[in-house]
Amino acid sequence: MSPAPSTSTGPHPAAGGTARVTRVTRVARAARADLRTAGYAFLALPAGLAAAALVLLGRPARAARLRARLTGGGAAWTGGRALARTVLGLPLDAAAFVLIGYALFNSGRNFAYPLWYLDTDYHQAWGGPTMAGVWSVHALGWLLCLAVLLHWPVRLLAKGQRALDRRLAGGGGVRPSSRGGVSRG
User: Which helix (H) or strand (E) element contains residue 176?
Assistant: First the structure.
């Protein structure tokens, strides 16, 4: 007698269906964490410059609130600490801003390839001779570069920024989350 046919509509766990869903979920979570980390790293320079301007204009409490809002810190931030964070973190913040700005600019260029290069001779470009081939090669290639760029260099810069935040805030509520972002404590 043969076994009864399976009535489930989903993939069979023994066939690796569950592992695939778990892997996709894990990659999606990592991508969201990388984007959140990149967002904080990118905003560190403009927020720091705004905080420094507020301190220099005699509004240190507002500067401290701005820094606390970005980092998740509480009452540990003061105007002087916010100014010190801007000055000491300038190399990290500027590097993160330039790197993420480059990634944003090139994302626009590669994902919108037909808008940028439609009037050029794209027949000899990678993926040519059709625009669809050129577009897909450039979009997928940049997506891979973007994943590497956001995963390692930006994460390292953000880790340095968070360490500086913790040091200057005296550990007052700023701690890195397990997913690369900043959690409030």
Answer: strand 174-176
Is 45 or 25 the better-scoring residue by pLDDT? 45
pTM as predicted: 0.71
Kindly report the average pLDDT of the chain as a whole number: 79
Distance CA 156, CA 162 (A): 10
- State both tokens at 36: 């959140």
Give residues with Cβ within 8 angstroms of 168, minimum separation 6: 81, 84, 85, 88
- The sign of the CA dihedral 152, 154, 160, 163 is negative
Distance CA 80, CA 169 (A): 11
pLDDT at 174: 44
For residue 19, what pLDDT band results from cuts at 50, 70 and 90?
low
Q: In whole angstroms, what is the distance from residue 169 CA to residue 77 CA? A: 6
- CA 158 to chain CA mean position, Å: 9
- Distance (Å, whole) CA 100 – CA 148: 12
The answer to whether 81 and 169 have CB atoms below 8 angstroms apart is yes
Distance CA 177, CA 97 (A): 21
pLDDT in the model for residue 175: 46
Angle of CA points 29, 34, 38, to nearest 5°: 150
For every residue of 73-136, DSSP letters joined together read --TT--HHHHHHHHHHTHHHHHHHHHHHHHHHHHHHHHHTHHHHHTTS-GGGSTTTTSHHHHHH
